[in-house]
């Protein structure tokens, strides 16, 4: 009986290893292939949670504060964005809404992405650089810039 249980445990372990290897292969392919630009993308190596590298110094939002701002101007920004997998892309976005979740410091930007031709949400702490397309001005912190402007 113990031999059968041991065999089943070994088979389960082997299947888990195959699943992990398959997932790793999928992640590697996803990081190196891009639908617009098939060349391998640069990976963002910095820890996104390390505020000494990308300090936002934002105060936390309390539940009673207004946390949602509508952007009324037709403005476009060229941004360099790192997704949760570490893939960096350049995008042109048209922000429509900016918000913060109660109890968190992160600013989120809902925008129309011209690269994906769809609505997307962007975390401010993942925007590496931003440039106003109208006047070609570099914006150091797009989330704070939009939050204070609207």
TrEMBL record:
Listed InterPro entries: WYL_dom
Domain WYL: 76-131
Pfam families: WYL (PF13280)
Domain of life of the source: Bacteria
Listed name of the protein: WYL domain-containing protein
Organism: Bartonella apihabitans
